[in-house]
Sequence to fold (464 residues):
Amino acid sequence: MRFSNLKTAMFLTFQELVRNRIVVLLLGLIPLVFFCLTVLTTKTAPVYFKLVAIFPEPVIRVTQRNAGIVFIGLTTVALLSAFISMVLIQRNTPANRRLILCGFSRMQLVLAKLCVLMTVLLLVSAVFAAVSLIFLRPIYLFYMLMSFLLMGYIYGAYGLMVGALFRRELEGILFVVLLVNIDIGWLQNPLYYQGAQNQQIIRSLPAFFPSQAGMTAAFSDYSIWAVWLKGFFYGTTLLLLVVLIFNKKMIVYQK
Amino acid sequence: MAVSLLLQTNHLEKSFGAKKVLKNVSFVVSPGRVIGIEGENGSGKTTFLKILVGSLKADNGSCQRNVKMGYCPQEPELFNGLNVQENLSLFADAYGLYERAGTENCVQNLLTFFRFEQYRFISVAKLSGGTRQKLNLIIALLHEPALLILDEPYSAFDWESYVKFWEYIRSRKQKGVSSIIVSHLIYDTTQIDERYYLKDGVLGCASQT
Fold:
């Protein structure tokens, strides 16, 4: 594997992404707009919910507004990460395939995309954690940042998978929005989750671990690491699946 | 070491569902030949070329590639978000060219020959159809391959670019480079050494010099 190939591919992939004005606009505008909307539409009345991924499932009391801010932060990090990673893998598929025919290895190409994705995730999570500070004082800011990062990691892997499976952007966007809406926007909301039946299904969805970790970090002094590691394992499994699909899709027959 | 056959296919077959696109296609390419393959739209020309370059797998038969090949696909396959120079860098890296001396000169010569220098720092998304096709072709030539496989390479070219294209093919031919040019219609048959016609999945010889 030539390192120079990886370096060039990483640099130019990042360059191409940064030149995409919609991505940059989304990154700058969405946190502010979404947080402001949450503040304007929520009350400061207390709500109670269980942290179900933390032993011994403690019940915490927070204001509706603070819960909303953390929750909307997690949701939008997921949405943005999935969208950006889908764009990363879906756009330029024929040109990527040509690169492989010309001598790039599939592994180099997928690694370049993953490295760019990780950089973007770090940026997205940091922006969201920083903007949320205008509205909220989390108990553990660093852990909350790590939870945002975990959400981005898992949904980034999901976005890559959607991008690898679907050829057209429209189908991809539909699948991204659909799952984000159902999973984080609805089922993982701790207020909904408490009264839900078949909670095992909800626990198996991608946003379960990061949303539990986020709520725990922002509103309690319990450790999030056990939950975080389970989420990391979940995301890594998705990512391995993506590598397999991408490798199969980009195979060439030059022997 | 000189290679007597640059490429050889034996009994290639390819189907998409019930439709047989290629039937028992055997074909050889010797050094210094310009080969034209004609055929109507949908006759399987692009499928055949994709099998030759390894982008598609044949259902049956074999394809033996003995030299470096340069492939120019029918639709420009480029990174639209990058500029011309960045596209060239990426593909030059893929060919492993930046580890060799003289690469920059080679790229520069191609850009000069095809009068492409003024586009060097322009985004590919902003190029016209013909200019994109020219870049598509230049990328296939970057690593000075011994065999060029060109799928409708000049359909969007202006007259000057078309003339330049044939001038380049002739100059490479003198150095022993072979070219396979696929088109639904080859106008300038005087440039072609071997002409084939692909019809109903069968590759037939049209004429030979």
About this structure: The radius of gyration of chain B is 17 Å. Strands of chain B lie at 7-16, 19-29, 34-38, 60-65, 69-72, 147-151, 178-183, 194-199, 202-208. Chain B has five helices and nine strands.
